Amino acid sequence: MLQNTDTIFQRLQDKFNSIAPIPKEDWHTILPYWKKKKYKKGNFITINGTVEPYFYYVDKGVARIYSVNEAGAEVCVGFTYNNDFAGIYDSFLAQKPSDFFIECLTDVEVLRINYQDTMYLYDACRSFERWGRIFNAEILIGMARRQAEVRSASAEDKVMQLKKRSPHIFDLVPHKHLASYLGITPETFSRMRKKIDK
């Protein structure tokens, strides 16, 4: 029997299986290492300069990932919301200090697993290690696409691509953060959105 029959753990399994299926019998080993944690709106899940100790599954809530540039301005690099994986992944894998913050824009509920347990499961479960390889490939592909978008797309194209890829995000995240993520001013973002919505 699985120790955790709560629906949050079922949603975690469904999310994993959408990327690379994991046999039912392996969940007996995997699930006990995932622990529930809640964060309040405005709290930080990760603070820059600290090592990311966890990999997260966000069950409920919205958070933004950002850095602070040399001029002291916040630069948003991503978001995480319901049924999504999160964390400062490079800091987590390398166990080196993070350059980024993760700030909760709403109350957030997660399941999380620490670095040591993740590495143990990579060795203990072949299916979990395979999942990790596929997930890492998806992360790299996503980063490459994001870089290409930032460098070559017009402001209008950036807003259109975001709306096509994640239409729900416009209702979840303050538009100033979306503008920062797209590398445009809030005024340009507002103008482009009105143009697209016509």
Tell me what you see in this structure.
By secondary structure, the protein is an alpha+beta fold. It has a domain at 7-128: Jelly Rolls, CATH 2.60.120. The protein has 9 helices and 8 strands. The protein has helices spanning 7-19, 24-30, 89-94, 115-124, 126-152, 155-165, 169-172, 175-182, 186-197; strands at 35-39, 44-46, 54-60, 63-68, 74-80, 84-86, 101-104, 108-114. The strands form 2 sheets. A 4-stranded antiparallel β-sheet has the order 1-8-3-6. The longest helix is centred in the C-terminal third of the chain and has 27 residues, at 126-152. The model has no long low-confidence stretch (mean pLDDT 91).
Number of strands: 8
Biggest sheet overview: 4 strands, antiparallel
What is the alpha-carbon Rg in Å?
A: 18 Å
Record the strand order, biggest sheet: 1-8-3-6
> Which stretches of 5+ consecutive residues score pLDDT under 50?
none
Task: State the shape.
Answer: globular
**CATH-level-2 architecture of the domain at 7-128:** Sandwich
Structural class: alpha+beta
Q: CATH homologous superfamily of the domain at 7-128?
A: Jelly Rolls
Helix amount, in percent?
Answer: 40-55%
Mean pLDDT: 91
> What's the CATH first level of the domain at 7-128?
Mainly Beta
Q: Order of helices and strands, N to C?
A: HHEEEEEEHEEHHHHHH
Distance between the termini: 54 Å
In short:
This protein is of the alpha+beta class and 198 residues long.
Question: How would the blueprint of this fold be written?
Answer:
Layout: H1 7-19, H2 24-30, E1 35-39, E2 44-46, E3 54-60, E4 63-68, E5 74-80, E6 84-86, H3 89-94, E7 101-104, E8 108-114, H4 115-124, H5 126-152, H6 155-165, H7 169-172, H8 175-182, H9 186-197
Antiparallel strand pairs: 1-8, 2-7, 3-6, 3-8, 4-5, 4-7
Helix pairs in contact: 4-5, 6-9, 8-9
